[in-house]
From TrEMBL:
Protein name: Uncharacterized protein
Record field: compositional bias (Low complexity): 120-141
Region (Disordered): 120-150
Length: 150
């Protein structure tokens, strides 16, 4: 998701985030959240392995294993929730980056729209009544056709 948004591989983005954190603070935030996502994903894997080991087929858990099973299941749910939150945070950072890029383009877009609006109010040609628009420079004169009714 991060590679797609910035258009570079993760390794290159990591070095950019470390070398120039002020130049792209959103990249630095995304990479920081990504590192916490890696940690929480590793925690998910550890808790899943522990839970699978405690509840493997053919194994009857002892009474004291029930608390370990319950705590492993709770830890797994917490780690999964942390992973989902980190993914959401990364998507929010990417959305903020896209909004910032769009906002940077917005002034030029609004200037272009203002120029088009001003061109509609351009002064009219001499001798032309105000109700008729000035002819376009790209319009060619039409050739009158001769025919029976004309």
């Amino acid at each position: 998701m991060i590679e797609k948004a910035w258009g570079r591989p993760i390794d290159a983005l990591e070095t950019l985030a470390v070398r120039r954190p002020v130049k792209d603070p959103l990249l630095r935030s995304a990479m920081h959240i990504r590192s916490s996502l890696v940690v929480s994903n590793n925690a998910v894997a550890v808790h899943q392995d522990r839970l699978h080991a405690l509840t493997r087929p053919g194994h009857v858990p002892a009474f004291y294993d029930l608390e370990r099973i319950t705590s492993s299941a709770v830890d797994l749910r917490v780690a999964q929730a942390e992973s989902r939150i980190a993914l959401q945070a990364i998507s929010h950072v990417i959305e903020a980056r896209e909004a910032a890029v769009t906002a940077d383009r917005a002034p030029s877009l609004s200037l272009a729209q203002a120029a088009v609006a001003r061109s509609a109010h351009a002064p009219r040609a001499l001798g032309q009544p105000p109700a008729q628009p000035a002819p376009s420079a790209a319009v060619r004169p039409t050739v009158a056709t001769t025919g029976p009714g004309r």
